[in-house]
Amino acid sequence: MVYAKRPFAGPQQVLDYVGRYTHRVAISNNRLIDTDNGQVSFEWKDYRNGSEVKTMTLSADEFIRRFLLHVLPNGFQRIRYYGFLGNRYRKQKLDQCRRLLGVPLPDQHTPAVDGDYRDRYENLTGRSLRQCPQCQIGHKVLVAILPKSPDQAPAIIDSS
Predict the structure, then answer these.
(1) What are 46's strand-pairing partners?
(2) What burial letters (b/e) apply to 62-96, b meaning 16+ CB within 10 Å?
(3) Does the pTM of the predicted model rise above 0.85?
(4) Each residue of 104-121: pLDDT tens digit?
(5) Domain ranges of the chain
(6) How many CA atoms within 13 Å lie on the side-chain side of 102?
(7) How many helices (H) and strands (E) does the chain have?
């Protein structure tokens, strides 16, 4: 039995709140300030002091220890699906939802879509990925694929 009342600020606030905890990492890259001599400096909000933004410096070992407290152990899932999105009878329940909403059921005997992703994109959006995005007249042509330089630094992945 679940007791749930209407959110005061509306469903968008609820989605924003839940999204902060289900689709983000423990600390975003823009909060990291510096790493120097085995020390990591980052910003944090002191909610006891009027949400003042402060800087904390920790040893790299302590920073990693605290970060790993937010990593789930093997076998755990961050998001679990219940109800009509649960795994056991998902297809049947989604079909029932479509019937109740008056949405046509997907045709299971539809042959595979011919063409590549560019054709599907054009069918869905009406815009061609083969045309020049600036002049809308010229066509893009693959000239060459350049190999990655061995001395090139690895790309920094922003996980925030």
Answers:
(1) 52
(2) ebeeeeeeeeeeeeeeeeeeeeeeeeeeeeeeeee
(3) no
(4) 877 765 555 567 888 888
(5) 1-72
(6) 0
(7) 4, 3
